[in-house]
Amino acid sequence: MLSYLDVTKLYGEVKALDGVTVEFRPGVVNALLGPNGSGKSTMMKMAVGLVRPDSGQVRVNGVDPARDPLAARRIVGYSPEEIVLYESLTPAELFSFVGSIYGVRGDAFGERTNVLIRLFRLEECMGKLIGELSHGNRRKVSIALALLHDPEVIILDEPFSGLDPQAGKILKELLRKYASEGRTVLFSTHVLELAEAVADRVTILHRGRVVGFGTPSDLKERLAAADLETAFLKATGLSEEVRGLLETLWGS
Amino acid sequence: MARWSEIAGILAKEATYRARRGTGVGRSRLAGLVGGGLVKSNLLGALLFTGMSLFFCAVAVVDQRFVVPMLGVLGLVELLVGAFATASTVHVILTEGLLEPLSTLPVTESDVRLALLSVGVYWGGLSMVFTVIPGALLVATKRGSWAVALWGTLEAVTLLLLAFGVGYLLGALSPKYTRSRISRALQTVAWLLFFGFGLLFQLLPPRAAGFVGEVGVPRWLLAIPPFSFPAAAMGVRESALVSLALSVLSVAVLRAGAGRLWTAASSRRFALPPSPPAGRWSLTVGRLQPLKKDLRLLAMNPRMLASTAYYAVIGPALVVAPMLADAVTGNSGIGRFLPAIGLFFGGVGGAGVYYLYALDAEGARLLYHLPLTRGGVARQKALTLTVTVSPMVLLVGVVGALSGGVPTGLAAVLTYGLTLIGSAMLNSAILAKRLPREPSAWTQETFSKGTLGLLMLAEFVVFGAAAAAAAVPAVLFGGAGSDLLSTAAALVESIFTLYLGWRRTRWLRDPV
User: Fold this and answer.
1) Residue B25 burial (CB < 10 Å; 0-12/13-18/19+)?
2) Which residues of B touch A106 (CB under 8 A)?
């Protein structure tokens, strides 16, 4: 379980999060949506103690990441939006290093890494330097690293960005599988069709506030929208604004 | 302002910003020092170098014998600092892909090329000529010898061109990554040779002590640039020929460097050998993986490998080698003092752990997501340094065994090794505490030069005093009993340093 209770975060005078209260429950796939700068990444970073809330509470399976970030990082598998890896190491070397930090030992580690390598079709990349890999393959390595220690809570920031359709399909299946095992799964995306197809529950964030929460069908019904995209635009108040701007652009 | 000069200014500013990213130095603070036009970006450097040049050449005004040594050494400073700074700037531009955003803009290739090649000037490189010219002018004015001004100016310009050429070559030779062992070995040797230039300063004083007539240095040095330039001003014909030859050569080196740099910048990708075939991967985990990771990063980064080797191994080896020679011939009584010397080496050597933080570079951002304490990282880096320096520790042990028997060798290994681990942990804990709180790259700019300078100075003083205190009984009394007392004192101090280092890292429980 990943929960946020009345969480506020300020960057200077900018309110990144403004009294956010939301629960991401285990057993379902949760999607976090929102325009750029809406606070999605800030929320996710809070779960591993990279950002501390100014007020309010964050809990990851009962652990407060602000007080005990190390415990939170052991529970969470986190893949950030910006891929951060050692470019002069190979994925094989990086898997061994990260596995050691998490204290993963023995055959279980070997089996899990080989499954992840095969799932993401990383076999041919394993001996190359990460600096030589394409953006998509680096993304796969980053996601595989987040899953290496068999985490209870999986948080992936824009995981589908740069993935090929095959890897995207595998990731969708993987997220559903983790959720079906009773783990907490949260990912962010800008692709609303993807969220609609994969997520059981959707949270829409706008200017640091939760402006929509529920299943995709609940949201569509509540906002009288034909699809999630329309629901998203209505929830974020962008629908009218976009229409007005388009009219200005075409001079009509 | 021409388009290429505008691009050069932006590239220089961005390269400096990227090199210092994560250190808390804001773009606005950098803007005051770098970029913003040719004059502005060189003004501060010009003032500093002018001050240095006048200060050093003041002595040459009083005594003509100092003209050649002073203008020669200042020339070396210009060459080394200029080449190093140019190589660093170019390296950042290539590895960070700073030219890539330009590829989508309507700028011509010649503009980009000109901007890239003049980036050293916009970084502040032009100010390097003020290392030599003001001093040469001062000497020329006071001594009424305008030949010194003429040859001094030629020296400054020649060395600037050479510094840019060498900097372009070194910077372009260092792609961000390469799997080729041969390429990495060659780059490491190149960097070692480059750092080795500093040895000239160590070699000069004893040689320069024997002045030759009016010139002030041994005759052989007059034929070696940059000493040949001021010597030419004093009428030495061979020096004039060598200096003019170097001026021509510097243009050739600049052309070659510029060509190599442009090839590297426009290709961006470097030829890599084929990767190993796919198959089932047998991956290992364990406590030594972080050490393996650091050693691998060190092996993959020729510049850092050369820096670490130079500081931790080659430097002490230069001190130990003569002792070893004496010990082999049996002429040495050094064995009595080796435990104390080991204590000093270990204590001062611990500061080398700084290089191992810069190794992580951009990859350090990953560490912020992992369950790692700062103390854990500090101990890890200390372990890597100990492993890296261990050949030197063993060499000191060999010297001890040869000059004073196996127990002396063992004592030297213990004092060197234990103090090294302790000092490395102490240094590492201080640095780990200062790592940025937000996920950041760790580079050589992550820690302030002031902190590093103070640390090194403090270690020289503290471990110098500790080693001297341990050596007192052996110096004052002589005999086996007092030697044993010296060894025991050095060992106690080593164990105390180890304890302090261990305690300091244990206290650091904050996450990275």
Assistant:
1) middle
2) 285
Please answer whether residues B364 and B381 qualify as being in contact, where contact means their C-beta atoms are separated by less than 8 angstroms: no
Q: Are B263 and B304 part of one and the same domain?
A: no
Round to whole Å and give the CA distance between B349 and A40.
Answer: 46
Using the 8-state DSSP alphabet, how is residue B130 labeled?
G
Whether B435 has a pLDDT exceeding 70, the answer reads: yes
State pLDDT tens for residues A17-60.
999 999 999 999 999 999 999 999 999 999 999 999 999 999 99
Q: What is the CATH number of the domain that holds A143?
A: 3.40.50.300
Does residue B262 fall inside a structural domain? yes
pTM assigned to the model: 0.72
Q: Is residue B297 less than 8 Å (CB to CB) from chain A? A: yes
Q: Is position A85 within any domain?
A: yes
Q: Which residues of B touch A110 (CB under 8 A)?
A: 282-283
β-bridge partners, A154: A77, A185
| Residue at A224 is within a domain | no
Q: How far apart are CA B27 and CA B31, in angstroms?
A: 6
ipTM: 0.85
B283 within a domain of the structure (yes/no):
no
Give the residue numbers in A contacting B (CB under 8 Å), as ranges: 48-50, 69-71, 73-74, 78, 80, 82, 84-89, 92-93, 95-102, 104-106, 109-110, 113-114, 117, 123-124, 126-129, 131-132, 145
Cis ω for the linkage preceding A216 (within 30 of 0): no
| Overall number of domains in chain A | 1
Nearest to A127 among B275, B290, B439 (CB): B275
Does the residue A12 lie in any domain?
Answer: yes
Structure tokens at A182: 């009773």
In a domain? residue B315? yes
pLDDT per residue over B79-133, tens digit each? 988 888 888 788 778 877 788 777 767 777 888 888 888 887 887 888 899 999 9
With residue A168 as reference, give the H or E element that holds it.
helix A165-180
What's the number of domains chain B is made of? 2
Judge whether A244 lies within some domain: no
Boundaries of domain holding A178 = 2-216
Contact B207, B218 (CB under 8 A): yes
Give the closest-approach CA distance of A244 to chain B in angstroms: 31
Helix (H) or strand (E) holding A10: strand A2-11
Matching residue, tokens 């052991």: A74
